[in-house]
Amino acid sequence: MTSATHSTLFPQVPDSADAILDGLDPEQREVATALLGPVCVLAGAGTGKTRAITHRIAYGVRAGIVQPTSVLAVTFTNRAAGEMRGRLRQLGAGGVQARTFHSAALRQLQYFWPKAVGGDLPRLLERKVQLVAEAAARCNIRLDRNELRDVTSEIEWAKVTQTVPADYPAVVAKSQRDAPRDPAEISQVYAMYEQLKRDRTVIDFEDVLLLTVGILQDRHDIADHVRRQYQHFVVDEYQDVSPLQQRLLDLWLGDRDNLCVVGDASQTIYSFTGATPDHLLNFRTRHPRATVVKLVRDYRSTPQVVHLANGLLGQARGRAAEHRLELVSQRERGPEPAYTEYADEPAEAEGTARRIRDLIAAGVPAGEIAVLYRVNSQSEVYEQALADAGVPYQLRGAERFFERPEVREAGVALRGAARAGGNDSLLDDAQGLPAEVRAVLSTKGWRSEPPAGSGAVRDRWESLAALVRLAEDFERARPGATLSDLVAELDERAAAQHAPTVQGVTLASLHSAKGLEWDAVFLVGLTEGMMPITYAKTDEQIEEERRLLYVGVTRARFHLSLSWSLARSPGGRSGRRPSRFLNGLRPGSAALGSRSAAGGSGGIERLAAARRKRRGPALCRVCGRTLTDAGEMKLMRCDNCPSDMDEALYERLRDWRAVRAREISQPAYCVFTDKTLMAIAEAVPGSEGELAGIPGVGARKLGRFGGAVLDICAGGDGAEESAEADEEV
To answer: What is the number of other CB atoms lying within 10 angstroms of the CB of residue 105?
Structure first.
């Protein structure tokens, strides 16, 4: 296979078992050929662990040593399971079951319930929050929204650690776990929640595992049936296994040992859900004959990124740290990680957006850039800053690609066009597969240019555009492919949850970024109290926060930026300190325990500090309250304070913006966001100085659009000023 004839998205299926081993490094090949007995793969970030284990399964299948239907590969997310199924299909091992623990257990539970219990399986409760709220109310315990979420998570933790309501307070005390409420109260709510589920004949996701474990323990005939079906087991991300999942795995295995586990103790970041690396670290104790392979060749990140990642773990403590892997980059040298200190959070967001815009201008695709933060509430100020900079973005955590309504509608339309063939008038003028797809999807809202603005309309367009790009890649990989061939490919991808890429900068929490990678990563908000998070008290909790930052660092292939701000809002007290985890790593800092810093500020940029320090705190111009929300600071008033906006002026500005956006072929928010237009319509500036004082009107936008805006504010239509600005540009 050559890149000239085949896209990497659609590789040819290897023509033999030996061909599957081509391209693997010595350690990956050792994993792929270790087909029998217990195998433990200790795989560092970016070392090709998924490649190694999928090639192991495919090699066994293609060599005739393993039957595909006898393999069960389990992981922790639908995305990871979908990726595994997609890779196995490309390697010619499409019959292998690759599922999450919950999906595999639910399938077995649905099949065996009538025989083991009788009747229909109880309805699965999709979201337990409402039932937990009712349970708390029945116990006369008031929970606000945050407490309700925390108590729900605590019940989930109790169930995966196999802790019953009556034992919960004692288990919490013994484990020194910080409970979100009095453990006795949580025990009450937990017990009532379980009672309500029984009364309404419903089960939750944790019950799926518990009930499957119960049936396999009590019914030896059913356990034997499962063991005859599955002879070989593979567990990815084994460091994240909970005690309940390990119990289920033991029951699936029985007295056999054809088990391959893959993990990295340094990436254990889900202990709050009951995950523990102990099963990975104790694997050789439980299986003395195990083959152990270490993968340390990092194919993802540059030596500069890997050096920082190794340095971060070099300061770690605890049992997981004792088993850390020293990564060795296999890539060419790249830029040094950038460390930037900002005066306040809005300045940090604006600076990050500018750097992202520069990267995109330099040729880095928006879809290959990510902004990662500790908690989801940090996203808003970055959404606003990226919108102001005219940079498209997507929030990670949205529904799966093939479950989006517009993607389902597109699939129906493409399937209908494929069946109609030459009888569909839509395709009369379309030459080639991509043109046919564009013609069909044009009836569903796709256009050659993205729509103005953001939100649902932009999200829909991005989904359809991803299908168009997939069709283009498909035709390059398989010249002469038909619309029917593409529909078949989409069906297989949907079954495997093997989604195409949606373009746009990714905004995501560090936890949700696990398992992903980008060309450029911006780690933001790296201050004490946020990294580590303020409620991380014990040594174990602090070390997990360090591992979380390690996961963030190792998501970057080439560009890595780390930043923090000294204050929350402009003019606020500059009392914040950079994360302790950067001590001894960022230029000019000293490692913990050393007496002084090694020189000045080194390579740390301190951007916008002088400009920002002169500004006082942002105050609501109506009630005088200090503003911290990015949107409120743009309007210079609280959202719930009365507005004195000139509605007619606002509508004229919106009409002008729509025309300008079309003229420059950019989304409307690239001109000005709605919030900025509202602020202008409220302030009605009469000079460049007054306009420049409105948040969201930077020097670049002032030069390009300022004259037109001031003309509109003065009663004109802005058309002449826009023409003059374009001539200057």
So the answer is: 26
